[in-house]
Structure formats: structure tokens, C-alpha cells
Input
Amino acid sequence: MTRMIRGQGAASRPQGRWLLCMAFWAAWSAGADAGSFEQTLASNDAGSMLELGKRYFYGVTVPQSIDHAIQLYCGAARLGNGEAQYRLGEIYSRTTTGRQDEVLAAAWFLRSALSKYDAAKKPLSRWDLTAVDIPAEPGCVLSANMMARTMPRAKPAEAAQASKAVAAAPAPSPALGDVVKRRDVERLVRGMAPEFGLSPELVLAVIEVESNFNPKAQSPKQAQGLMQLIPATARRFGVSDPWDPQQNVRGGMKYLSWLLDHFDGDVRLALAGYNAGEKAVKRYGGVPPYGETRGYLRRVSRVLGVSEEGLSAYQGRPNVFVAPRREADAESKKDWESRFFEVDLSG
Output
């Protein structure tokens, strides 16, 4: 009897260690999951948000959380991802969260259909889309705040015409459709520029020189859309569809804002970097000696009504005071030059 009790105690010790390890792993993974969620949500990478949203929806390798899935799908949907828009429609059309909001679901399915995600047409065919005022700008409502709303069912004759209704539905705003009129692009830019602290006139000048306000423009080097983003730059700044005017302008503004920060507000160097790449500016210690880049700066300066030399002092960030340039001490000058240019200060 004594031996059996000792054996039980010996067997319980590994089990206790195993349970302790499992508890530690669970606590650690919960913290890691939270960090991954926050980082992905702030990344502006639609693909990453979509994939992590799926994991939270199903509870695969992360604790299941419908609200986390909604937030991640929403981030991807706002960037124009049709599948994310569809998945939001799926969540709201079912009782996954305890309530069923078919009106909000229809709005997201419509947005998905407008993004050319064909699967969205099937659920839309169930409803009479003409009988309810469907919001053009659907929200991302978390489970605690959801309302219970139903859509009227389509009659047999109406169901046959549902796909036509989807095709005829206007885009929620010029930003989400094929913007073809210059005034629509101007309205989009003026609405978005404050988010990045940029002068709308500077952004519009870049668009005029880059694409002449043509959202379908493509260069021989595969630069695409209104702000002529090459595929690498589009990926770098979270643009999944460079032909979508809103995504293209947002990505171009992010890049232009990044360049202005990198070059301490010098618009001339920022524009040279936009045209030739910041590495070329660094390699040549200033504006690269490329005919294309020199001509680009001349054209932008003409649109802005300033001289090419005056671009350096142009207020690319209208609400930010730019102090006059002064001679810096040796250490700060070395740091500035090493960040901007390839220089050898070793003597």
C-alpha cells in the first residue's frame, strides 16, 4: 500500500510540471496574441489583417474572438479588400454574435460586390434591395452594439433581377469607384490630406504631373494609378489595389509624407525621392542627375507656381512651422548627412 502511494506521488510530479508549463504557455501566448493583434491592426496590410481575422474567427492558434475578427476584417475592408467586406457581411447576416443585422450585412455585401468579389452576389439575391435604405458607408459594429434587423425577401421575379440591382448600385463615394472627373479627385485629396498633414496643392501637383488625373494611367515601368505607384511601393505602404483611387492616393500620400519626414521637410528632395527613389537621392548627395527627375521637378514647380529652387522652402506641411536652416554643430550635422546621403566623414 505504501509503495502504491509513493508511486502515485511520483507519477503526479511530472503531471504537475506539465500543467504548470501549460499554464505558463497559455499566459505567454495570450500576451503574444494581443501584441500580434495590435501590430497587425496598425499595419495597414490588408492581407495580414484578413488572415489574422480568419484565425480569430475560427479560433485557430489564437483564442476565438468574433470582435477581434470584426476589427481586423474592418481594417482590411477599409483598404478595399473585397473578401474582408464579404466576411463582415457574413458575420452580420448570421446569428454569430447573438443578433442578426441583415441591413448592415447587405451594405457590406454590396460593398464587396462593388469590389468585384463575386461571392457577394449570391446572398444579395435573397433580399429585395429596393425596399430598404441601405447605408452607403457601413460601419463595423462590435457584437455588444449590434441591432437586430431583417431585410425583406426578394420575390421570385425580383430575385432574377438582383444581380442587375447590384451592378447598377452606385459606389458609396467617388473614392471607391473609378474616379474619372478631376473635381472628384480634388475632393478626395482635400478630404484626405489633413490626415497626413500634407498640403493638398502639393499632392494635386504631384497627381497632375504623375498621371494627369487619370486613375488608370500606367507607365512603361509599371507605375500605376493616380499617384503612379510601382508595385514595390504599393506593397510597402499597404496598397492592395493600386487601381482603386482611394487606396492609390492614400498610399501615395503615405509615401510623400514619409519622404518629407525623412528629408526634414525639404520638398525638393522629397519630390526627387518620389520620382527616383530615396536611395538615389542619398547616393548622389542631392537631386540625382537624371533628366527625368530634373524635368519632373520643373513640371511640379510650374504647377505650384514657384521656381525649382523655391521647392525646398515650399510648405509641404502647411500647419507645421519650418525653422530657417542654420549651421548645426558637427555631431548633429554628421547625423543629418549620414541619414540623407552616402558620405565618408572619416577624413
Remarks:
- DSSP finds 16 helices and no strands in the chain.
- The chain has a mean pLDDT of 79.
- The chain has two domains: 19-172, 176-340.
